[in-house]
Amino acid sequence: MSPAPLIVFDKVWKTYGQGEAEVRALAGIDLAIGQGEFVAIMGPSGSGKSTAMNIVGCLDTPTSGRYGFMGVDAGRLDRNRRAELRNLYIGFVFQGYNLLPRTTAVENVELPLIYRGVPAQDRRALAMKALAEVGLEDREHHTPAELSGGQQQRVAIARAIVTRPTLLVADEPTGNLDTARSHEIMQLLTRLNEEYGLTIVMVTHESDIAAYAGRTIAFRDGHVASDTKKLEAA
Amino acid sequence: MIWETVRLALRSVRRNALRSFLTLLGIVIGVAAVIAMLTIGSGTTQKVKADISQLGSNLLIVRSGRPAAPGSGPQQTIRPLGEKEVAALAAHLEGARAVSPASQKQVRVVFGTESLTSSITGTDNAYLDARDWKVTSGRSFSESEVRGGINACLIGETVRRQFFGAGDPDGASIRIGRMSCKVVGLLEPKGYSGFGQDQDNVVLMPLSAFQRRIAGNRDIETIYVAADDATPTQVVQTRIEDIMRDVRRVTADREDDFSVRDMTQIADAMASATATMTGMLGAVAGVSLLVGGIGIMNIMLVSVTERTREIGIRLAIGAHEKHILIQFLVEATVLSLLGGLIGIAIGLALAGAASLALSIPFVPSLAVVLLAVGFSALIGMVFGFFPALRGARLDPIEALRHE
Ligand SMILES: Nc1ncnc2c1ncn2[C@@H]1O[C@H](COP(=O)(O)OP(=O)(O)OP(=O)(O)O)[C@@H](O)[C@H]1O
Ligand SMILES: [Mg+2]
């Protein structure tokens, strides 16, 4: 079904510290995620989920092993090349939204386009379109302080998809939201996955949130404990 | 992209308006000092030049004392000038239009209830020739007044205004120290000199009267010599030196105990004094700019720390190191440029006020302003570089986790 996988972990290790104090955040992970998949990553606290997400999102590199992204050995690229990869192909959604304070919604969404060198007038149009996509076209001039948590997370999603990325990396995107707001966000992500074929890798602690994903990978102590695909047409 | 960054920088400066302003103070003071100083300096230079061309570059000034070190060395060994030098020059000097002795003293002058401290000069009519000075009303000294040391005065415009207002000074009697003196003529106004001196606050009287009633001795302070138009000043200067050596019996193996200088040499001496002054003030301004630069460095470090999370976000969504570097560099530059502009405005205002107060021309220089702009931008870049680099080198993951 999926040809060349988008994401490949080949015996990926990530260790922090040295000697006695060494922490094995990831202990030889093997993993492949195809284009267009919607994957939820679960597991207890400290099991290495965020560490893995940072590598998936090209923010970090493995201590050993190979991380392939779009057929590129992303783990060996320098930080500026990885920045380019992130800018071109990857969108991020964080638990804490991470919008720029005192900056309007539309300006926040425009941000990745600036680093892409998109001209100002195109930037505004694209940002407005992305805001419309998440249902916030009427909030363009609001700053994060003037938006609810759910709305802020929508702005963050708009910012992540404004560049039409291949991959969306979301570390506990609903962690700060109430149940109703969480489900709205998940419906939005599901729609982006289905309509645009956006590949999504998402960390969550809640199984009803994970249930939106087509595949759930469970981490334990830096290993993959289980990897289950949802049956199609249940 | 760059306009975007400048706008961003301006916004961030505005957000921390007070902090930004305090940070800028060093730059503002430094630049204001430099601008004021240079503008006042060039105004003064211009005024001095104008004065000298007005006095005529062919005016030579003879004084007693060694030429090399004015004011230094044992003063008692200096023989003052006297009648015989004046007589010798008047008799033997060729190529001179006028030779005039003069002695000067600051004395309190009183008329009615008004009083004024004025520069009293004892001299003769040749002085007016030598200095190209005209008598606008009344007359110059008569032969008998000069010879007999009669108390007759020519007054300058400032003295006239102080004592007589709109009235006619002719024939009035003014008190100079303990003597009284009849006003016979009014001198043409000359304004302030380049050294900030009111040239119209003067009273001229016959030399012998001055010597008897004011100075109490027969010394002559200065002999003014105006070269005629056909003879180069240099030539006249050499001739004066020869005659002076002869009359004062300065043998070839001894140093001259008098000096002959023309106005250009005096202007040069003045200019070098001004340059020393400028240099000292420049050093003060330099220290202020250095302090200002360190202030900018400090505030930019604070700014980078405060905005660590913002940097993390920008890096995560694809900013290069250079994007972050440029952002903070531009911010530091905008900040110090702003300080520079405020400093230029204040500096020009100060120079304007000073030129009004000192009656010197106000000559703002575009080159100096552009230099100040460039220099303050440079300070921002230099002192902003380290903080900006620190921001650019942040690890995105740690930056995102900050606070
Ligand atoms: N920068 C770091 N320095 C040292 N140890 C680290 C660092 N980052 C992560 N770790 C350690 O690596 C392990 C995995 O951390 P990670 O953040 O991936 O866990 P997680 O699965 O995301 O947990 P949570 O569900 O609480 O977010 C933990 O033991 C953590 O203490
Ligand atoms: Mg985590």
From TrEMBL, chain A:
Q: Coiled coil located at which positions?
A: none
Q: Name one GO molecular function term.
A: ATP binding
Against CDD domains, the record matches this protein to:
ABC_MJ0796_LolCDE_FtsE
SUPFAM superfamilies noted in UniProt: P-loop containing nucleoside triphosphate hydrolases (SSF52540)
In terms of PROSITE patterns, this protein maps to:
ABC_TRANSPORTER_1 (PS00211), ABC_TRANSPORTER_2 (PS50893)
> Would the keyword Metal-binding turn up in this protein's UniProt record?
no
Q: Which UniProt keywords apply?
A: ATP-binding, Cell inner membrane, Cell membrane, Membrane, Nucleotide-binding, Translocase, Transport
Q: What InterPro entries does the record point to? A: AAA+_ATPase, ABC_transporter-like_ATP-bd, ABC_transporter-like_CS, ABC_transpr_LolD-like, MacB-like_ATP-bd, P-loop_NTPase
Where in the numbering of this chain does the ABC transporter domain appear?
7-233
Annotated GO CC locations: membrane protein complex; plasma membrane
Per the record, the domain of life is Bacteria
Q: Please state which protein family the record places this protein in.
A: Belongs to the ABC transporter superfamily. Macrolide exporter (TC 3.A.1.122) family.
Q: Any idea what this protein is called?
A: Putative ABC transport system ATP-binding protein
Source lineage: Bacteria, Pseudomonadati, Pseudomonadota, Alphaproteobacteria, Hyphomicrobiales
TrEMBL record, chain B:
Chain coiled-coil ranges: none
In terms of InterPro entries, this protein maps to: ABC3_permease_C (IPR003838), MacB_PCD (IPR025857), Macrolide_Exporter_MacB (IPR050250)
Q: Name one GO molecular function term.
A: transmembrane transporter activity
Keywords per UniProt: Cell membrane, Membrane, Transmembrane, Transmembrane helix
**Locations listed in the record:** Cell membrane
Which family, according to UniProt?
Belongs to the ABC-4 integral membrane protein family.
Protein name as it appears in the record: Putative ABC transport system permease protein
* Species, as recorded: Aminobacter aganoensis
